[in-house]
User: What shape does this take?
Amino acid sequence: MKNLFFVLVPLLLCMACSKPLTDEEQGRQMLLEARAHYAGGRYGVARDTILSMRQRFPMALEARTEAILLLDSIELQLAGDDTLKAEFYRRKLAFDIERTNE
Assistant: This one.
C-alpha cells in the first residue's frame, strides 16, 4: 500500500501541473492531420478535417490562416476536369499566398 502511494502521488501531481493545450496548439495538430490526409490523396477527408478544425477552434488564428492555403490546394485537386473551377482556385491560391506574405 505504501508503494502505491509513492507511485500515485507523483503521477497525480504531474497530471495536475500539466497545462491543457491551447486552441492554437490543437488547431495545429488538426492541420498536421489534414496535411497528412492531403499527402495521402484523401482530399475529402483533409477538407473535412480543416472544416472541423475551423469550427472547433475558432481562436486558432495562425493554424486557420495556414489552413486556407491547404484548403485552396485541396479544392484545386478536387476541381478535376472542371477548368473554370480549377482556374478559380488557382487564382485564389495565388492571391492567398501573396496575402500571407505581406
User: Anything to note?
Assistant: Residues 22-100 form one domain.
